Amino acid sequence: MKHLDLFQDWSIHIDQVSFAMALAETGLNFTELDQIWNFPTHIKDDRLGDCEPKILHYHSQVDETGILLEIATLERATESIRIVNSSLARLYSDEGHIAGD
After folding, report:
1. What is the phi/psi pair of residue 48, to 5°?
2. Would residue 38 be called left, alpha or beta, if left means φ above 0 and alpha means ψ between -120 and 50 degrees?
3. What is residue 62's three-state secondary structure?
4. For the chain, which terminal residue's Cβ has fewer other Cβ atoms within 10 angstroms, N or C?
5. In whole angstroms, what is the distance from residue 80 CA to residue 5 CA?
6. What confidence score (pLDDT) does residue 1 get?
7. Which three-class secondary structure state does DSSP give residue 1?
8. Beta pairing partners, 56
9. What pLDDT, on the 0 to 100 scale, is given for residue 98?
10. Is the CB of residue 65 less than 8 Å from the CB of residue 90?
11. Where does 38-83 show beta strands of DSSP type E?
12. CB of 66 within 8 A of CB of 72?
């Protein structure tokens, strides 16, 4: 945290950098997880390829009610998003309000 200024607008990611540096320093082995375990919904092009994500990393990709935005070009990922949205809709309905209320 001593040189947090070096990160400028990306200082929010200090935990990720610190974790990588700790792994490097300790020499601990690690296994990189497939993208299904941290699927970024904010990347809207074909770099990702289509898959069935287990964890959606959605940043600010939600509408005004808190429902996750779909990715038109990725059908399988969008199906996972729809499953989450269906659960959210039930939750909001059971609570008698929409997200943001």
Report:
1. -80, -40
2. beta
3. strand
4. N
5. 38
6. 63
7. coil
8. 39
9. 53
10. no
11. 39-40, 56-57
12. no
pTM: 0.73
Tokens 């941290």 correspond to what residue? Answer: 38
Distance CA 81, CA 69 (A): 8
Residues found in the chain: 101
Series of mean pLDDT values for 10-residue runs along the chain (101 residues) = 75 86 94 93 80 92 92 91 93 66 49
CA distance 60 to 45: 17
Residue 8 CB-density burial (10 A; 0-12 exposed, 13-18 middle, 19+ buried):
exposed
Tokens of 90: 């039930």
Query: What pLDDT is recorded for position 5?
Result: 78
Hey, what are 66's tokens? 């808190």
Amino acid letter, 70: E
Cα(first)–Cα(last) distance of the chain, in Å? Answer: 36
Phi and psi of 68, rounded to 5°? Answer: -70, 140
pLDDT value at position 65?
Answer: 87
